[in-house]
């Protein structure tokens, strides 16, 4: 069986690897650290022969200069080795405008340019991102392809803290409904915070602008946010912790969102960057509309596929958005799942590997 190398094993790369198996391609995961990668690559060469391709994904920096310089050295060695072997060099560019963790803009920019010298094809994570990639990466359209993600469901799996999370959410929802009857909307945000996650900072404004139009919105927020916002935005943290209109559970928890899908009405997501958030797929799976603001690529994806709504930056259309909240037909979500799947990702990768 032929094989490829792929950086970093997570749910996205694992699901793609499962689809590639159907094309008789074995995926061997690398530790996303070029200092260790080179040793695993050499081991694979002796054991399996040369790979068909290597897929790079994230170009996040280390947190100090010596490590980053060492990283550049080993990346150079890797790229040249792949060219000597005549293995395809591919890059799934998850974050087009900038990486999530950047120690130095100059260093990270150099690392991106270095990879682009050797890469055979750049994959963006949604077809709507191709135009953005041409602008930011300074590449031609024929240097580009795309992948999509797919259903990120963890099935019926139950996690250790799930009952605790579920009980907290049920109590919060029931208490608010007792006060407002059925005239209250619940949104859900979960995950880490970084430079691009604007939904936590803007949730207060969403709630307050809604109140001006007699729209009652309550937020359920779960994630390890306290440390980040303590340093970056203490006002947002204070709001999340003390405002009674928000249920805030700080910390990293794993849970099955399907367990409480009947308790939430929409997903509030605002990203300032050009990357495709996995939350879109979760919202589609649960048939919940996504509401966002006019930032980053998400508005274009939502409007193109008609799976949510974009609130303008003055919130002047918030009334129309909530009047239309339940108007999205189920077929829109189904169509999105048809055009966005792990199978499509694997097919597009195989086309490049096979030179089609």
Task: Explain what this protein looks like in three dimensions.
- The protein is of the alpha/beta class.
- The chain has 2 domains: 2-150 and 341-353, Rossmann fold, CATH 3.40.50; 162-338, Glycogen Phosphorylase B (Rossmann fold, 3-Layer(aba) Sandwich).
- 45% of the residues lie in helices and 16% in strands.
- The chain has 14 helices and 12 strands.
- The chain has helices at 11-21, 34-48, 65-85, 105-118, 130-137, 162-180, 199-212, 226-232, 234-242, 279-285, 298-305, 318-323, 330-339, 342-353; strands at residues 2-7, 25-30, 53-56, 88-92, 121-124, 144-146, 185-190, 217-223, 246-250, 266-268, 290-293, 308-311.
- Strand 7 (185-190), helix 7 and strand 8 (217-223) form a beta-alpha-beta unit.
- Helix 3 packs parallel to helix 4 (105-118) and helix 8 crosses helix 9 (234-242).
- The protein is elongated, with a radius of gyration of 22 Å.
- The model has no long low-confidence stretch (mean pLDDT 93).
Keywords:
356 residues; alpha/beta; Rossmann fold; 2 domains; 6-stranded parallel beta sheet; elongated
Give the tally of β-strands: 12
The CATH architecture term of the largest domain is 3-Layer(aba) Sandwich
Flag low-confidence runs.
none
**CATH fold-level label of the largest domain:** Rossmann fold
Secondary-structure-based class equals: alpha/beta
Largest sheet: 6 strands, parallel
CATH class of the largest domain: Alpha Beta
C-alpha-based Rg, rounded: 22 Å
Question: Which strand order do you get reading across the main beta sheet?
Answer: 2-1-3-4-5-6
**Helix content class:** 40-55%
Overall shape = elongated
- Into how many domains do the coordinates divide? 2
Strand content: 15-25%
